[in-house]
Amino acid sequence: LGSASPFCSSILNYTTNIASGNLYNTISTFNVEVVGIVMKWIRDQGGVHEMELRSIAKSSMMYDLIDNSDGFYSTPIKEECLRSRMNIPFDVARGDKELTNDFLIQAWELGIVGLRTLTPFGIGKYLRASLYN
Fold it and tell me: By CB atoms within 10 Å of each CB, which of 28, 42, 79, 84 scores lowest?
């Protein structure tokens, strides 16, 4: 004890483990359990390939709506190859505050939440649809 090689990984250093009450490398078992549940669900749904297909379908639906709205909705990401499948920034009526607030209220009433993007610089012009789920 107390004379571990400087090349010894801290996980294998008994002094470190004793000083921390053997908790130095105790993993968060709750997180491991949740990840396991999610991985089983993904597997049961058809795996990563199925998740990719769903992601493409959801984002395509959203971008098609934006692109075919005659400018009512717009996104700053014009190049399709740069568009995210996870987070889609968009605005309502070129950022009209009253229409945007009406849109957010109606979305909230339909159970669609989290569209307003709050940044360290304040509320941005764009709303953001996150398609993680």
Answer: 79
Single-letter amino acid code for the residue at 23 = L
Q: Would you state the pLDDT for residue 3? A: 87
Type of residue numbered 75: T
Tell me the one-letter amino acid at 47: G
Rounded to the nearest 5 percent, the helix, strand and coil shares of the chain are 50, 15, 35
Mean pLDDT for each consecutive 10-residue tract of the chain (133 residues)? 85 85 80 96 97 96 97 95 95 95 97 86 87 84
Helix (H, G, I), strand (E, B) or coil at 114: coil
What does the alpha-carbon distance between residue 122 and residue 120 come to, in Å, rounded to a whole number?
6
Rounded to an integer, what distance in angstroms lies between the CA atom of residue 30 and that of residue 124? 35
